[in-house]
Amino acid sequence: MKQLVTAALFLFVLSAASAQDLPAELNGYKFTIAKKLGVTPVENQNKSGTCWVYSANSFFESELLRMGKPPVDLSEMYTVHAGYLERAENYVRRQGAAAFGQGAETHDVLNIIREYGMMPQSVYSGFPAGQDKPVHGEMEAVLKAVVDAVIKVPDGKLSQQWQKAYAGALDGYMGTPPAAFMVNGKQYTPQTYFQSLGINLGDYIALSSYTHHPFYKPFILEVSDNWSNGQFYNVPIDELMQITGNAVDKGYSIVWATDVSEKTFSAKEGMAVWPETAWEDMSQDERSSVFKAPVKEKWVSQEERQRGFDELTTTDDHGMHITGTATDQNGARYFIVKNSWGTSVNKDMGGYLYVSQSYFRCKTMSVLVHKDAIPTQIRQKLGI
User: Fold this and answer.
1) Measured between alpha carbons, how far is 379 from 376 in angstroms, rounded to an integer?
2) What is the Cα–Cα distance from 123 to 121, expressed in whole angstroms?
3) Residue 9, domain member (yes or no)
4) What's the confidence (pLDDT) of residue 20?
């Protein structure tokens, strides 16, 4: 039995290591990998708005590898299930004046873990029988209909049963998570399993960079998916760049929330860049050449970032996982980013993207990093 477990663990580690074997040449780009961090295999959020938990779980799986612990495959849908319970109570208490959808922020994962714990994928998939990927459109519509009916208070006051009815609908789609389960011959609850991993949630800091709030203070980021009103520390963009570069160089990966609606973000091409010439001002030939060879990129100021946020041209679209860095043939630096759209969007990249520093600088909404990845002088300014 021990030999079987060891062999399975070896195969998982092998697949995790090979998941980040990226091509040195991509169209006309030639990349040199500067840093590759420990990763687990790319997953597929499929037809669900659950990037917030896929990116966070991928991050924590890499954190465990960084800490020298065995690889694990954490259940995303356990966190999603708990999140829908919390979201419904928030929506009803606010009488519908709150977001209710599939999206969330990374701090929601941390808050859910504190309250509900964690469990491995092998224990709870959250998928109906015959399904191996999430499909959440119908489920969201049904759950939203339940809470919308509740807040109309048709009997003059809320009943004692609405949470049970809602939870029953949720369990009908996702299944009921177990209260206790076995892993490697030992029984756990979700809380004791999380405690066994050795992750200290107090070590992780969320940061953003916008001028409509004071720097070096926490603020509530005004995006619809921030339904729980979580706070982010605010730093100048130059310091956010310093933090993220320092993190990867020192072996810490990063959760990255960003805008992926731009024409110069392409999972199909396996790249995201921010050319000096705006897309709408390019000729057709210029547009066609963006992903064929390195283009001159724009230096993005703090003011331009803010303008994008204020004008709603930078939006909170997607969460991913930064797991390394590379440079192109001109010496420009890129982040290696692990996505959660499966491995077949660009088979050469296997679910990863090269993201330029300019794109990151312009379109980043927020990051989550270990506090030890933040340079000392910036931590002192933040008081952490």
Assistant:
1) 5
2) 5
3) no
4) 66
CATH code assigned at 164: 3.90.70.10
Amino acid in position 327: T
What is the CB neighbour count within 10 angstroms for residue 329?
Answer: 13
Q: What are the pLDDT digits (tens) for 114-128?
A: 999 999 999 999 999
CA angle 363, 334, 28 (to 5 degrees): 110
Q: Alpha carbon of 174 to those of 125, 153, 220, 308, 355: distances in Å?
A: 8, 27, 31, 38, 34
Please give the sequence-ordered ranges of beta strands (E in DSSP) within 158-283, or none if there are none: 181-183, 186-188, 204-208, 218-220, 231-234, 254-258, 265-266, 271-272
Is 367 domain-assigned? yes
Instruction: Please give the biggest Cα pair distance in the chain.
Output: 68
Cα dihedral sign for 92, 94, 97, 100?
negative
Distance of CA 338 to the CA centre of its chain: 9
pTM of the model: 0.94
Do the beta carbons of residue 177 and residue 83 sit within 8 Å? Answer: no
Q: Provide the domain limits for residue 272.
A: 14-382
Comparing C-alpha atoms, which of 15, 137, 147 is closest to residue 91? 147
Question: Does the residue 1 lie in any domain?
Answer: no
Please tell me the total count of domains within the chain. 1
Assigned domain for 159 exists: yes
